[in-house]
Amino acid sequence: MAYAYSNSFDNGNSASGTTLTVSVTYTAGEHVFIRSTRGSLGGTETITDGTNTYTAIGSSVTTPGDTITHYECVSTAAGTFTVTQTLSVAAAFRGIQGLRYTGLANSTSLHVGQLQSPPPTTTDATTSGNLTPGSQPGILIGWAYDFNGSGSTAAGTGFTSRATFPTESTANGGASRAEDKRLTSTAAVAATFTTPGTTGNVVTSAIWCAEAASANVPAAMHHRRQQGMS
């Protein structure tokens, strides 16, 4: 069985501040991805919940006045946690967006992303730029953040739309969409979206993560291996 999408979570606040929180309940062993936003370019940021560890993936993507960073927790503890974004310098337009998956490897992911201002409006032309997967099979997550808040950015060809993060989007006046697709090749690939002509600034990112080895074993074979049979 391949990886599975579990759920999303989000929160946002357009006022200036240094902390933002959201409560989320995990099952044991989930692989969680977080996209943070803040209306500043300086200072430092951490994502914590008191138990699980969140590590930045790759480099942050910036606009003229905002910063977007992606984090992951490769294997969660079970329980309800308060995920907290903490900034060293107060900023407005703070946001947390999260995606939860099962069946992904407990290993570090890869990330690419870019700002398109404005993005092309043709099909699949809003893009993260190419990322080369480290192995296959795996997942490619696409994440688009439209700072103009048109709300109609469509998932790319071959991708499954997963979340639009309405709480964060309403608070900060933007619009997001997350998508994913399963990869069975290590050829370079990009996350793509189709953006309407009403938008001006979109940050699009791609995250690759390997599928867990156990997720690729058919159920009957997995049972036989557990019983010590060949």
Mean pLDDT: 91
The tally of strands reads 16
Strand content: over 45%
Report the uncertain regions.
217-230
H/E element order: EEEEEEEEEEEEEHEEEH
Instruction: Give the oligomeric state.
Output: single chain
What's the story with the biggest beta sheet?
A: 8 strands, antiparallel
Gyration radius (Cα, Å) is 18 Å
Q: What's the shape?
A: globular
**Total domains:** 1
- Spatial gap, N to C terminus: 19 Å
Tally of alpha and pi helices = 2
Question: What is the helix content?
Answer: under 10%
- Class by alpha and beta content: mainly beta
Brief sketch in words of this structure:
The protein has helices at residues 166-172, 219-226, and strands spanning 4-13, 17-26, 31-39, 45-48, 55-56, 61-62, 67-73, 79-102, 110-116, 126-127, 138-146, 154-155, 160-163, 175-183, 192-194, 202-210. The protein is mainly beta.
Describe this structure in words.
- With 230 residues, the protein is mainly beta.
- It is globular and about 45 Å long.
- The chain is 7% helix and 49% strand.
- The chain has one domain.
- Strand 6 (61-62) and strand 7 form a beta hairpin.
Give the helix/strand layout:
Elements: E1 4-13, E2 17-26, E3 31-39, E4 45-48, E5 55-56, E6 61-62, E7 67-73, E8 79-102, E9 110-116, E10 126-127, E11 138-146, E12 154-155, E13 160-163, H1 166-172, E14 175-183, E15 192-194, E16 202-210, H2 219-226
Antiparallel strand pairs: 1-8, 2-8, 3-7, 3-8, 4-8, 5-7, 6-7, 9-16, 10-15, 11-14, 11-16, 12-15, 13-14
